[in-house]
Model the fold of this input.
Amino acid sequence: MPLFGNQQVQGSDIWEPQAADGRLAKTAGADEAGVFTSDLSVSEYVLLGEAGFEPLGFVVGSSIYHIGVQIGRWSQNQELTVLTQAMYNARELAMARMRGEADHLAADGIVGVQLRMQMYAWGEGCLEFVATGTAVRALAGQGAHRAPDGRAFTSDLSAQDFFRLLAAGAVPVSFVLGTCVYHVAHQGVMQTLRQAGRNQEMMQFTQGVYEARELALSRMQAEAAAARSSGIVGVTVDVKNHVWGQHATEFLATGTAIRRLSAEHRLPETSPHPTFTLGLDR
Done:
């Protein structure tokens, strides 16, 4: 099984537009007199403080990528490796640049990571991959919450889930993903006619989707192992068709890899616990 992650992005994460450099220089992470920026809600901001962290700045990474062309055999289930590679590289460029902005702010981590795609009318055949999140720093200033490589952790957890994770004695390591662009074979005319009016499993479709999903999940799991984590929480598998036609589909598995903290870095038992309040107003 080929693993496409962490390829062709070396050195790319150090690139920052001058506009971003000026914005980051005026945030709390780079200047004590600066202001923090974030995509946190008020409740999330309060909980982040209860967890012993402060927001530093809203961080962004972007890559506009031209997706190549690969044709699958009409009657065969197969991975479209050229397209898989493109989707991996584009996302990793965006993620690496977002993490580079967090490093600029000396952050311990990034919470609330969102990874999305968008198209522009002037960029036919191109997709922009955008990664966003809020860079945070532990108030204790010990750096114990950083990823094993010494850089900021990345996580798509909300502030509420981040708080609960810390209370349980764990910390995020990395937002991990695995992807597979797969061509699901077409059915022949005779096969379609034989199935008309009958209840039966579409075995060729089942096998193709199974293999594609397993490839995506296996690659996500391999990323978590490479990041020296102990597990993954919040796993989701999205299915998207993008611009390739009905039978070429991307399976994208994502989650947050975590690791256990040593006892001295866990939240104290006296820390307040989040509660859910249900209003009675109609």
Observations:
- The beta strands are 53-66, 78-79, 109-118, 126-138, 153-154, 170-183, 231-240, 248-260.
- Confidence is low (pLDDT under 50) at residues 10-14.
